[in-house]
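Supplementary notes for students who missed Thursday's class. We covered one full example, reproduced here. Read the sequence, then the structure, then the short commentary at the end.
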Amino acid sequence: MAFQKTITEAVAVAGLHTLTVSDVANLIVGYSIDVQGVGNTFDGTHTISAIDEEELTVSFQQGNHNHALADVFGLLTVNIEWITTEDVELFLGIGTPSQDEADYLDVCTTAASEWAFRRRQSSGYVDYANMIPGSDVKLGTVLLAGSYFREKGSVDSFASFDAMNTVAPIGNYGQIMKLLGIQTPLGIF
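Structure (token representation):
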């Protein structure tokens, strides 16, 4: 999940479901959202069809249901979808992965997209959850997901090396940071 909004009210009229949320910052019509904890026909994955910035509401169409206005406590989650597992498979050069590998690849892909999104936001960029900012950011995110996948089960440090001086990061992390347009790492992420 990339970011969440608290849902405080819910109503549905002729299938138009409207949720009152904590704020509408970073939400865009067309985003795929996951709604949880509201119940009825609200919970599930939907596509935002309207946003009211003054009323702090988000709407989506779902069937022809009617539900009276009710106070609720739920969560609206927008998922970051910058890269796909197919992008990472192409980078890794692997064929059809086993089910365990495919599941882990999904986790790595999601984690890389979310981390890249948050790091770019903290660096001052205004990005959208469903729209990759450019091919450089896409490549950086794919490299990051591929690194996560390849590092499964690896050991990156040993207790006996504690007294050694800190060295600059090795591997593709410097390149990943550069491609994402964020500050070069100082050895710690």
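Commentary. Residues 157-164, 184-189 have pLDDT under 50 and may be disordered. The chain has two domains: 3-78, 85-180. If anything here is unclear, bring it to office hours.
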